């Protein structure tokens, strides 16, 4: 195995290794957030308010589809890492080639489903008639990139399982820079409005997918991707899907649950709605930085579980939990202190800024508590358990939110009573996830006794 491109997660000091592993992932995730913001900025600045509204009205559906594929990729990561830790290289190779086919099929299916039902889904979300044509055009073109996004998430899962998080960052940086340039070209020069930013996104996704496939194709070790070995293995397919599908559904269902929260926000005046929208830009930034640590948690736990290193399994979880909590606390503090500056990036209206500050202050005290839930879910996934954690998170962090909206929020009908559902749902779900993880850990560790 070439040390320049693959790294063992089963040896050496854990904390420096986790930090070294996580930083490129954090940068990758932040770049994705910034590139997505550039789409909105370009179309809003150069194509007008209607085009901006059309793109914005698809956000929930875009999040749903992309979140599902990201979850699928994390399943590939867990299975690959476990076999790498156990040094079962034939199983690693079967996992890589099986998951490549599975993720590609999934991407094509999402493209077909989304393309066919785009108008129905947008009408179901209550998209305004004046925005509907542009939203349909944007989403259908954007969905053309789903097969490529699926392939990139497959490759990212494999490379991160081997300890290589730098190459996905490089490939994403290249594709993201291309995305920004194509945005400007298609929107300003060719006047393609929402269709232009959608086409730019699709093209850049195929570039990132091609780069990651070429990288895997030139690796001689077990994680290499070779056309002659591409075939579905029944056992590996079931193993990958048993972790990947619940992970994907978990990400997708969050998008659906957030619809009910947005409906609650929409019951207030336009200033509060706009302030909430501006402040919500912080969510993706903080969540995605923390998500890098969660992937590190799954990868380190899975490799060390495969290698039979009991103490490193437990320490990986505890270190990642502490790290993600600390990152959220620091970022939240910075966000609250410089809240006005952050919100001024999205609006110049003083009333909107004040409304946004209300959300930032409440969420700034809440983000860190999501670490217990998400890091523990990643830990259970690292031990090969995905279905029960997904059910718990659906009940505790999705169903609970809907009930809260129709009970607590309906009774008080204040913006504070709506925002508080986050910290309550995260805390309750996190405790339940922790209890399940402790049960799984004790069960799995018996084999090492």
Instruction: Report how far apart the termini are.
Output: 30 Å
Query: Number of DSSP helices?
Result: 17
**Main sheet characteristics:** none
**Structural domains: how many:** 2
Write down how many β-strands occur, each being a DSSP E stretch of 2 or more residues: 0
Series of secondary-structure elements, N-terminal to C-terminal: HHHHHHHHHHHHHHHHH
Given helix and strand content, the structural type is mainly alpha
Low-confidence stretches: 1-5
Shape: globular
Question: In percent, how helical is the residue content?
Answer: over 70%
The share of residues in extended strands comes to: under 5%
Taking all Cα atoms into account, the compactness measure Rg is 21 Å
**Mean of residue pLDDT?**
89
Q: How does this model look, in words?
A:
- This protein is mainly α and 449 residues long.
- The protein has 2 domains: 11-244, no CATH class; 266-449, no CATH class.
- The protein has helices at 14-46, 49-56, 59-85, 89-124, 129-143, 146-161, 166-189, 193-217, 234-265, 270-279, 281-307, 310-337, 339-344, 350-364, 370-382, 387-412, 415-445.
- The protein is globular, with a radius of gyration of 21 Å.
